[in-house]
Amino acid sequence: MAPELAWNTWDADHPACWMHLPSGLAVRVSAFSTRTGRATEFPFGPGTRLGPHLAGGQGYAEVELSHDGARLRVRFAGTRGGGVAGDVEVLETREWGLRFWFLVEVGFGADAPGGGRAPAGRVVRLREPEGAARYADPPVAVAEWPGGALAFAPSTRPVAAHLYDDRREAAAELEAHGYYHRPPARPEGRWAVYRFNAVTPKVAFAVAPGPDAGAAAAELGARAEGAPGVLAERAAVAGERTRAAAIRDVVAWNTVWDPVNARPYTAATRAWVSGKFGGWVVWQLDAFFNVLLAARAGDQATARANLDAALALATDRGNLAALRSGRTDWVDRSHPPIGALAAWSLHEATGDRSVLERAYPVLARAHRWWFEARDGNRNGLLEYGSSPVGDGHFVHTKLAAMDESAMDNSPVHDEAGFDPGSHTLDTEDVGLNSLLVLDGELLARIAALLGRPGESAALAAGAADLAARVRATLWDAGRGIYANRRWDGRFARSLAPTSFYPLLAGIATPEQAATMVRGHLLDPGRFGGPWPVAGTSHDDPASLDNVYWRGRVWPCFNFLVYRGLRRYRFDEAAAGLAARSVALFERGWAERRSFENFNQRTGEGGDSVDADPFYSWGALLPLLGELDLLDQDPWDGLVAGSAGAGPGRAELPAPAGTWRVELAEDATCLRLDGEVVLEAGFRGRLRHLRLAGGDARLTVPPLPRPGVLRVRVRGELAEATLPPSPVERQLRLGRDAGSTRLEVVDEARLEVVEEAR
Q: What is the pLDDT of residues 659-691, one digit of tens each?
């Protein structure tokens, strides 16, 4: 098994659990308060504060827990060769330390991958120190499994250590008999449970692997001694308070193990996995957004896992199910189509052609399904719906059709009816049709790259035809915006941010785009204001409901609208949206909350019971702050710099290496793996950057005054003073008689700006 799939916080229900997937061994923490007589295994909930989290084989996780007035901090870190360092610290109690107990549990059981009892061949034994050492040194737990052994020991001698078949017996004994109770000794079990009390408020521990019990135990001493240093080093790396770290932490904490399908994936929120959906749940829209988030976090393994989980939603009819889980299977409906965007973005982040080879057949079939199943009135424009198949909840109802839009109770659906004959709503949806144009455009690009020119041409033609239909039919000239349209020809009264998706898909004319952005998106009485993008227009009475998709800001809207603004070069508006999105996120992140949605008037996330507090796509908001500085844009390629953002920096993992941009007050610096490749004496958005290989070139923004630009590619330096210009200019690195120079690229001619000195 790959190292990154070894130790991690795989248990969705219990964040204070570090699980080793190959063996099924878990190290976890419970506690008991004598004051209340209650024990807890620290299920994920309101008393949990999820701290920094690094992914990968040598990852790190930090979590604060509460129980009956006490607070604990638990830390785990993966170490070389498959080991673990960790510690538990009681930060606060409301009773004498002797009477507050915490248990460190090591073993196999119902939490093992696959569920149920641990597989055969897995056993835990305790090795007690001999002689006088038993009064000073802790016992060692040795867990044996068919692949070898893992040895565990704390840094401090526990009050007691016992073996159990079920770890929960230890907590039950404390509740029933108190902390003086001693269970009978036994030679082996599934779990070793170490008991400590808060008189010793901090205990470190270590796990060492080995081919057998003796080798693992022999290795343990050095691991235990080094545990505090490993934790301190890893905590310093993980504790950086940046946008990138927030994205990383939200993805890492919501990445869990699916025991039914035997795979890792990023859940929308770990809070929903077991209690609500029976042990595993994949929402299509969330899975594709999680591809984008994990890729930006540099966790390509998780990004691929999320793409695979999304593609596994494919049904035998061709669509991707909206939801699959342990309790309900929504094969009758799909979700807004962003799969091609996710696959293309992951390919650009990794350079891995196999990503597209795996995704294209599934996504192309799903694209065709929309036109086969969701053109209810057969006029070439599509509606959301629910087919009469499967037994998912609400199948073949208006509610299911609204679910397909992922905007379940949005007021844009209020006037729509469900037509059981066509299995669709009777309203053509501007968001759906725009996303299908984008989907077709990107699938055409993927097909061309994969050497399928005929399919590429057909997809491009289909996207162009649909774009023309949207442009001709769904533009509401009276209001100056794209809108949903009922079959009787009337436009829906309510609007949503989906009205701006024609920007994302390149459908709107420049005049239409300007009208929508200035008259609606930026208007504080409509979709603008301090906390954009309003999910419901502020002047719509439904916005006062403040319930889910009515009167709430949703990070997915902000992300897709931002992409549309950048495509149409509304750079100032895009930078403003990114800045406000980051500010919106940081209000909750100060308390380690990544909200599912926010009050569009106050910016509060926790004011609604329908806003999960640690939702994966909440991280789309800080992602916009990163994209505003450094991006791999689907249309503009590698992009660096911003005129609107303040001084800052951002990093982007890419096939060529790690790009890093640093913005000062009046300067932009771009590095590749630490080496400076571009320095600009001005601020602005540098697009189409191709500086890692041959044919080096870039596009510079309009300049109000002269600006110095230095570009270094393959050791060659070109420097130029660019004259002012009201328009973008494309430059390339050229050579002439041994000198390197920057040239302005023009279809008819090349103009030398200034030769390198």
A: 999 999 999 999 999 999 999 999 999 999 998
> Exposed/middle/buried for 233, CB within 10 Å: 0-12, 13-18, 19+?
middle
| Helices marked H in 386-452 | 398-404, 430-449
Q: How far is the C-alpha of 119 from the C-alpha of 146, rounded, in Å?
A: 10
203, 195 contact by CB (below 8 A): no
List the structure tokens of 541.
Answer: 């009475």
Q: Do domains 3-239 and 246-627 have the same CATH topology?
A: no
Alpha-carbon Rg for the chain, nearest whole angstrom, is: 28
Q: How far apart are CA 14 and CA 648, in angstroms?
A: 36
Please list, in sequence order, all residues whose beta carbon lies within 8 angstroms of the beta carbon of residue 200, skipping any fewer than 6 positions away: 156
| Cα–Cα distances in angstroms (integers) from residue 662 to residues 202, 316, 530, in the given order | 40, 49, 27
pLDDT digits (tens, 9 = 90+) for 300-354: 999 999 999 999 999 999 999 999 999 999 999 999 999 999 999 999 999 999 9
Rounded to two decimals, the pTM is 0.96
Angle 741-744-749 from CA coordinates, rounded to 5°: 110
Q: What is the mean pLDDT of residues 522-530?
A: 97
CATH of 3-239 among 3.40.50.2300, 2.70.98.10, 3.40.630.30, 2.60.40.60: 2.70.98.10
How many CA atoms does the CB half-sphere of 292 hold within 13 Å?
Answer: 29
Backbone angles phi, psi at 371, to 5 degrees: -75, -25
